[in-house]
Design goal:
2 copies of one chain form a homodimer. Helix content of chain A is about 65%, strand content about 0%. Chain A is built from 15 helices and 3 strands. Chain A is globular. The model of chain A has no long low-confidence stretch (mean pLDDT about 90).
Chain lengths: ~425, ~425
């Protein structure tokens, strides 16, 4: 009886494991390959704009082009990440197969002409649309379609940042605020690992970040404690700021969208004037640092995510400028994700706060990097793991403190309107 | 309006944060201090038995003493960790204040005479009973009592192993299988950090483990991939074994308990014959390695958790012997936790499997260490974090694969009968 019990339950689980391993191979390979193509095109577009800076002046026209591409070819694709989440909560018309290709092309266009946006939205939508397509081909059941969509999110996210575990946790965490369910974790892990492997196999590199802060033993009560209490207080204060900035970011995207909608009856004028706003903003800042992705430096001394890890690598209000540039770009219909700009906002804000509070700069840049993202997407656990996968495990306790504090201070909105509230924050 | 919105919500959250920070200070200090005392007494008892090995012959009498201590002073204390979980799910008579002291004394007695048991159960019960006591003094509301009990679990667990983040995640994860809710995470984090700080401040050290495996670049497809696929397959196969052993452990504790109950009408005969069984087992093995905690070596070349991280540091069936020793000890009424023996079983099984599969021994010992525990307690996320806190973040992906695979293969029972099923595994 004892052995029989083990057998029947375990064979079921083994079958489940093998089934999802088999399904993950095409899902991971296809999504990984498309993400690799996307990353390569994106980098090419970014460096092409660096050598042809006048392209920025065509941003308004690029916006109009994106508008019409979606109008004629997009169907429900325009809803992006939210549509994928809606399909996971309540299957409807499905994710249209063209979503992935459209968002790939329009994100590259956005970046080619200098729009401030990210990558993860694009990768997640590539993941969702490929997963839906494969689910149809394999004639999966409704519950399996849901799981495969989550695996698609995991593979897209894991592949685009080179963080497979974060991708898998993000996929199960982002669906609903305040709780996590494990039922889809194995398919998500398989798919994101294979997706990440595929990007690697295509030879696409990821950015490496480095925390150069090494805790010394000369802090308050160092003889008795192995952590610096004062540093933890500074981290909590900074993380409250990270959470508030997440809130401002999420709210601003909606508000800018609504303001532009109320201003312009003719829809294509919205991205047109959005593009003009970005041009004017660039003139008023006097430098192109807040355009596009913010990972690569257009010139020596440009403010990037990487520079924010060093003293003097960010201006006091870099985080604010990047918030404005990105919310205008995304609020007026340009394409791309929110996450890389959130990394930028967090890292530069971390830099600024560390300078004010006399705290280690690279550590605070790293904390801002993950915590602003955690607050804006309500995914504190995925972001804690992202800290470990990108920066190493030594400061995992600080990562968790930062992400959960920011999460509590970012309100219930977040950047994904289709995210459900599982357990309210208070 | 915008600013007002931020204000009212944020002030609520700030009040919440400050309130729980204030509550965490006495909780963390008291629990941390009592755990420090417990760890000190435990180590003293273990080394005293090393120099007086004949103490083992008094184990049956020690068992009878423990039985009567609980009979006359325990009230509902006997239910241990399960009672604390029940009180969190559905407040009842409360956790009796004497639970912490009783379990501390009886665990030290168990180890002094060579019973094979752990520490976390004791620490969690110390945490739960102190939290309940403080909740009463502070006249907290029912919902706050629940949160404080979880914070007590977090502080006890975080303090006993020196892993504050794992303690906090464990407390919110262990309550229900298959899902996680974030509402109590901040109080749990505060309490476990302060608890860990307190143990440190008392100068109590924790064991350090080290994975000496460094991945080289000579694996299959190394030119294209940054992880070794073959190694990941070996990890999945080993983790299935880790999960099955968790299942066997959890089931054996119940079965041995039931067998002894059916054999002996007179209750105190159960621990008496349990003690005799342990003595006979020690004779049949011919060495004392599977007695007590398994962390410190009684003699050079003894099999311990630490030795399992090195080639030749475990016998082929060490994991099975430790399973039998521990399930007999705990199933016949001795006191202590299950987790350190689970670490032992996992690390030695990892050692054995790595030898058979030609895999890195220290890595597999570490994976077994966390994965058998993950399977037996159904807390894969806490165990993944434990891997990061104890062994570093480099292999976090492997930790997650191992813990979640073991979790899925360990069945729905687990060692805590009061754990509820949040989301079934299949």
């Amino acid at each position: 009886m004892f052995l029989k019990n083990i057998k029947s339950e375990r064979i079921q689980i083994l079958t489940y494991l093998l089934k999802w391993f088999a399904l993950s191979i095409p899902v991971g390979l296809l999504i990984g390959s498309m993400v690799a193509l996307f990353l390569w095109l994106l980098t090419t577009a970014i460096f092409f704009r660096f050598s042809h800076p006048y392209l920025l002046y065509f941003l308004p026209l690029a916006g109009v082009a994106i508008h019409f591409i979606y109008k004629f070819l997009g169907k429900s694709s325009e809803k992006g990440n939210n549509l994928i989440m809606d399909e996971i909560h309540q299957p409807g018309g499905g994710v249209p197969p063209q979503m992935g290709v459209l968002v790939l092309i329009t994100t590259v266009i956005t970046h080619l002409f200098g729009g401030s946006a990210g990558r993860e939205g694009t990768a997640v939508q590539i993941g969702g649309s490929i997963a839906q397509l494969l689910a149809k081909w394999f004639k999966l059941s409704a519950i399996d379609v849901k799981t495969l969509l989550m695996a698609g999110i995991a593979a897209g996210f894991g592949a685009v940042f080179g963080t497979p575990l974060t991708g898998a946790i993000f996929a199960i965490e982002v669906i609903a605020l305040g709780r996590l369910k494990y039922d889809a974790i194995i398919p998500c892990l398989f798919a994101s690992i294979i997706g990440d492997f595929t990007v690697n196999a295509w030879g696409i590199p990821h950015t490496h970040y480095h925390i150069d802060f090494v805790e010394t033993k000369d802090f308050f009560l160092a003889a008795y404690l192995h952590w610096d209490i004062l540093l933890i207080f500074k981290i909590i204060i900074a993380s409250v700021a990270f959470g508030l900035v997440s809130y401002v970011f999420a709210t601003l995207v909606y508000r800018i969208k609504n303001i532009f909608i109320s201003l312009f009856k003719i829809k294509w004028l919205i991205p047109f004037f959005g593009g003009i706003a970005i041009i004017l903003l660039t003139f008023s800042v006097g430098k192109p640092d807040y355009l596009s992705l913010g990972v690569n430096a257009e010139y020596d001394g440009a403010i990037t995510i990487t520079s924010a890890f060093k003293a003097g690598g960010a201006d006091t209000f870099s985080w604010l400028w990047k918030t404005i540039f990105t919310t205008v770009t995304l609020g007026t219909g340009f394409k791309g994700g929110e996450v890389t700009p959130l990394f930028y906002i967090g890292a530069t804000l971390g830099n600024t706060l560390a300078t004010f509070m006399d705290a280690p700069i690279s550590l605070f840049a790293a904390l801002g990097f993950i915590a602003v993202f955690a607050g804006a997407t309500n995914t504190p656990l995925a972001c804690t793991f992202m800290g470990v996968e990108l920066f190493g495990g030594q400061y995992v306790l600080f990562f968790a403190i930062a992400c959960f504090t920011a999460y509590f201070f970012s309100g219930h909105s977040g950047i994904y309107s289709s995210q459900r509230i599982g357990v309210p924050k208070l």
